[in-house]
Amino acid sequence: MTAFLDACRHTIGAQYVSIDAEQNAPYLIDARRRFTGTACAVVKPGSTEEVAAIVRLCNQFKVPVVPQGGNTGLVLGSVPDDSGTAIVLSLTRLNQIRTIDPVNNTMTVESGCILHNIQQAAEGADRLFPLSLGSEGSCTIGGNLSSNAGGTAVLRYGNARELCLGLEVVTPQGDIWHGLRGLRKDNTGYDLRDLYIGAEGTLGIITAAVIKLFPQPKATRTALLALRSADDALRLLTLAQKKCNAALTGFELMSGFCMTLVSRHFPQMRLSFKEAHAQYVLLELSDSESDEHANTLLENLICDALQQGIVQDAIIATSIAQSKALWTVREHIPLAQAAEGKNIKHDVSLPISVIGDFISETDRLVREAFPGVRIVTFGHLGDGNLHYNIAHPEHDTEDSFLMQQAAINRIVHDSVHSFDGSISAEHGIGALKREEILRYKSEIEMNLMRTIKHALDPLNIMNPGKLIQD
């Protein structure tokens, strides 16, 4: 190992190869601070060529590589295991925006660019990069692509996969694939781009990407709507899609208990509804015409929804500040959960039409097996992504509740499967769900994935133990 580390220091500079325990600690613990791995070093190359050189050394010395961006993932995909044999390869120094092409509506960015910085650069060019996440102030575009991140605007713009046109990738052998093409049509063989997006660093290391930009909307309108049930939320979604079409950008479902938690732990965010409701929808329109047109769309939608008895009450933002305040409530649900105590998280996706039935059935199953649990349901209803989280009963301790995690996961994931859903919508598989997917994916699917992994990474040095067990 000494020879390997000396070679790394010689290649990229000794100051970028750390074996110091205190300095390395933030790179070894997961975002939820529930698992800490170990590594022989944290290595920080400053260019694609340096990434490739480090990977070639890892091949030579048979050292595993754990690529890492902002380390905001929730499935243990960006931290090493506890063997201490791997390096963490931090991509944070690859943080340059290489080019912006407003005519082609593209931007070429390095993988260590913070998502918020990309959004700001797009705005500076009078363009929009629509990927938006709660962690956008610290997550990186490389991590977003490696996990095929979703967020709040998937309904209109799609996942990270749909927002990427080309990639630059360092292969497990240390070669560089120069695939930074800003083309919307390119039928010249297998789509290698889509192979690497969502692969969680197990097939290669994304070092740069060509991402799509969009015109800035002329007007944005936001409303928080109170409803009786998730089924009414689905009725509202159908109505909103019919009346607003492509202007419908965000459609977030939040249960009444979500709002209770936010009000309890962040009382300054308490909303002025006259009474509590079972469900809420945070709805956003992005209009390409004018303020007047956006106002008309929203007013007509809410008027019809009230007349049809779908919506019980509404708060309509009349300023940018009020719109931000409504989104802040949504973004503080995970923070309120954390303040309430440890919880069991599920990031699932379902056919949109069955989400109401799934919530009713799964709530019943979980509460029958574990009386007193508190269910925190919220998510991107417009694209079928639900965060189905479960908090401990008030009479129980957090630690004793977490001992039931496997049993609770089984109930929730089996229910998801029975509704033809997926146990991972936007967080990925990582190490956390690596064994779990074996229960729900067919042997044919798993064998195809293993074949791809073995073909591209025969030494199994790329993020081993993540996504797929070798």
Automatic annotation (TrEMBL):
<dbReference type="Pfam" id="PF01565">
    <property type="entry name" value="FAD_binding_4"/>
</dbReference>
<dbReference type="GO" id="GO:0003824">
    <property type="term" value="F:catalytic activity"/>
</dbReference>
<dbReference type="GO" id="GO:0071949">
    <property type="term" value="F:FAD binding"/>
</dbReference>
<dbReference type="InterPro" id="IPR051264">
    <property type="entry name" value="FAD-oxidored/transferase_4"/>
</dbReference>
<protein>
    <submittedName>
        <fullName>D-lactate dehydrogenase (Cytochrome)</fullName>
    </submittedName>
</protein>
<dbReference type="InterPro" id="IPR006094">
    <property type="entry name" value="Oxid_FAD_bind_N"/>
</dbReference>
<dbReference type="Pfam" id="PF02913">
    <property type="entry name" value="FAD-oxidase_C"/>
</dbReference>
<dbReference type="InterPro" id="IPR016166">
    <property type="entry name" value="FAD-bd_PCMH"/>
</dbReference>
<dbReference type="InterPro" id="IPR016169">
    <property type="entry name" value="FAD-bd_PCMH_sub2"/>
</dbReference>
<dbReference type="InterPro" id="IPR036318">
    <property type="entry name" value="FAD-bd_PCMH-like_sf"/>
</dbReference>
<comment type="similarity">
    <text>Belongs to the FAD-binding oxidoreductase/transferase type 4 family.</text>
</comment>
<feature type="domain" description="FAD-binding PCMH-type">
    <location>
        <begin position="35"/>
        <end position="216"/>
    </location>
</feature>
<dbReference type="InterPro" id="IPR016164">
    <property type="entry name" value="FAD-linked_Oxase-like_C"/>
</dbReference>
<dbReference type="InterPro" id="IPR016167">
    <property type="entry name" value="FAD-bd_PCMH_sub1"/>
</dbReference>
<keyword id="KW-0274">FAD</keyword>
<dbReference type="InterPro" id="IPR004113">
    <property type="entry name" value="FAD-bd_oxidored_4_C"/>
</dbReference>
<keyword id="KW-0285">Flavoprotein</keyword>
<dbReference type="GO" id="GO:0022904">
    <property type="term" value="P:respiratory electron transport chain"/>
</dbReference>
<dbReference type="InterPro" id="IPR016171">
    <property type="entry name" value="Vanillyl_alc_oxidase_C-sub2"/>
</dbReference>
